[in-house]
Structures are given as C-alpha cells and as structure tokens.
Write a structure and sequence with these properties.
Layout: H1 10-21, E1 28-32, H2 39-51, H3 72-78, E2 85-88, H4 107-117, H5 123-130, H6 141-152, E3 161-166, H7 173-184, E4 190-196, H8 204-207, E5 211-214, H9 220-245, H10 248-259, H11 263-286, H12 297-302, H13 312-327, H14 332-348
Parallel strand pairs: 1-4, 1-5, 2-3, 3-4
The chain binds zinc ion.
C-alpha cells in the first residue's frame, strides 16, 4: 500500500513521513481511527515507506513523500509477505482451529481479508470472513508471546522488525501485561504499531507507553468507493450492455479495453463489479436502493432487476473464478472473455 492509494488523511501522513525522514522513528505508536477511515491503510503504507529503498517526493499533489511501490521491500510489504512484518489481530475458534486460536493460525485469511477490502474492512467483516459467527474475537496471550519472540530475534532482512496489532482494544489483560515490557523497551530496530479504533478500553499502562497518532474521521471508505465507482462505472455499464447482445466483435474490443487496465486494476474492476451485482441483488430481492451511476436512467432502472435468486450464485462464482485466474497470472483477456460468456448466460437465467 502506498500513501497515494489512501483517500484523505493527508495531514497525518505528511507528518509521519516527515518524522521518518528526520530519523526520529517512534518505536511504539498507537494509530487511532476507524479502520474504514483508513487507520490500517496508514499503518501498512507507513511501514512500506519506512522500509522503501527508493522513497519518492512527488512534485505537486498533496503528499510530501511516498514509497516507490516497486522495490523488493515495497512489494513484499504490499503483499504482506515481508519476513520481518508480523501481524496480530483478534481471533476466535473456527471449524478449522477448534482450540487455542492465535493470529499465526490465520495469517492467510487475514491477508485475503486485507486484500479484499483494501485494508478498509471492519471488525464485523473480519469476523464474517473468519466465519466465527457470534463469538467475540480476542488478541491473546499467545499473540503477545509471539510478538515478544519476533522482536527478540534478529531481522531476517537486516532492516526493521515490524509488528502491527490491529484492534489492540481486543487484547485481553494477560496479553496486555505480557507486552508492557516490550512496549517500554523495544529491542533495537523494532517498530510496533497498535492500530485501534478506540483507546477507551486500552489499559492506561499501555497508553502511557505508546505515542498516539489520531486520524481524522471522515469515512475514507465511502470516499474510496465513490472514487472507484466514478472510475469504473462507465466501463462496467458498457460491458454489461454487451452481455445481452453478445456481438463478438464489440465484445472483443471491450474486453481488450478491460484487459489493458493491468492486473491490479483488473482485480479492482472485478471487485467493483462484484459490489454492484450484490447491490443489484439486494435491490431486486429486498427493494434496497441501488445506484449504478451509469448516467442512463433506463439502464439504471432495468439492470438491477436482472440479478435474482436464480442467478446471483452463478454470477458470483463467475466473478470469483475470474479474480482467482487473474490473481494466478492467467492471461487477462482469456479470463475476461470466459467471464463475459458465463455472465451473459447467468443474466439470461434470471
Ligand atoms: Zn520502495
């Protein structure tokens, strides 16, 4: 995640990069703000900047600095695969992990969750992703022990040892106590970021040991969604229209346009398409309002009716498969063409 991928929070971001550039990196910080306002995004972009081998200072614009997004370190942090980046978060037992759950058991799920929501997913969405039903997640003593251990070792890559604790307010007392010493005297080269939404339930002993950085409230997520819709709505609408007619020459040209987006943007586009389909479904089944933003009233009124109980699953599966294929380096055009045929078939089944 680069800072430029974050909507808003410019003041905080610029202050943070200034501090990093001046070499006064604080070893234990609490980033306080709603996840869907970008607190976890800021934390991840912060660490990426900290480790970046070619920090950039873009001219113009409202960011004083950003990570390059291209160097090996940036790529590893962006994929949450950096060996010195350790992530902790609330967990509970699931059908797979039936006892003594801890963050390390759910690394893959957490990475998926971050990717799917661009690090803006809420705690409820995380619990739904884990499938823990009504259980309350917790950051546990085993997590605190893992943090102490991770920071006690040498960095694999010789740089910073980084720990992110998402939702420290879900830390139980045993875990919090276990962390006190580490927060007070972190080992050389450690950076601990607690990323929380509220400090009311944090122990005073924790609060007094970290430097608090407050983010602005302002719903970055809604703004990010609006920006995404503005970017992709015309392309999506054009494509959906073609799925009814299926004129091969036109469709092929349209798919070329989509394939030209590049892998990351293709994924973003398909994620956006998935959101649109979901809201169309909620519209046709529960009457919830939907805004396609196509600029064409007739289409906006007609299309949502096409997504029903009879085809929502086919539509979802088709989009999931295409996302998976593109993720796995499939040739974009082929994946998108196949997806077009499957969606066209599904839409006729309404
Ligand atoms: Zn970089």
């Amino acid at each position: 995640m680069q800072f430029k991928d974050i909507v808003g929070q410019r003041d905080v971001i610029n202050r943070l990069t200034e501090i990093i550039d001046s070499g006064r990196v604080s070893h234990a910080q609490l980033l306080l703000g709603a996840t869907d306002d970008g607190s976890l995004q800021v934390a991840l972009a912060y660490l990426q900047y900290l480790c970046c081998e070619h920090r950039v200072h873009p001219e113009g614009g409202d960011l004083r600095a950003d990570s390059c997004g291209e160097c090996p370190s940036c790529k590893k942090i962006a994929a949450l695969m950096h060996p010195d980046l350790h992530l902790y978060f609330p967990t509970a037992t699931t059908t797979r992990v039936t006892s003594a759950p801890k963050s390390d058991d759910f690394g893959a799920e957490f990475r998926e969750f971050i990717a799917a929501h661009h690090a803006l997913g809420t705690l409820d969405e995380w619990y739904a992703h884990l499938g823990i039903d009504n259980k309350q997640g917790m950051v546990r003593e085993a997590d605190a022990a893992a943090i102490v251990q991770a920071l006690g070792m040498k960095a694999y890559e010789g740089g910073w040892k980084m720990v992110v604790v998402w939702m420290p307010e879900k830390m139980n007392a045993a875990a919090a106590n276990e962390l006190l010493k580490t927060l007070e005297e972190p080992s050389e080269g450690s950076v601990i970021l607690l990323v929380g939404e509220s400090d009311e339930r944090l122990l005073p002993t924790i609060k007094s040991r970290v430097q608090t950085v407050r983010l602005k409230a302002g719903n970055s997520r809604r703004a990010a969604e609006a920006a995404l819709a503005e970017q992709y709505a015309p392309l999506l609408v054009e494509w959906l229209r073609m799925l009814f007619k299926l004129k091969m020459k036109e469709l092929s040209a349209q798919v070329d346009k989509m394939a030209a987006l590049g892998r990351e943007q293709q994924k973003q586009f398909l994620g956006y398409a998935q959101e649109v389909m979901r809201s169309c479904f909620l519209h046709s089944t529960a009457g919830l309002p939907v805004e396609l933003g196509s600029g064409d009233q007739k289409f906006d009124a007609m299309f949502p009716q096409m997504v029903t109980v009879n085809n929502i699953e086919m539509i979802n599966n088709a989009l999931d498969d295409a996302l998976f294929a593109i993720e796995r380096n499939a040739y974009g055009k082929i994946a998108l063409m196949e997806l077009s045929f499957r969606l066209s078939k599904a839409l006729k089944k309404r």
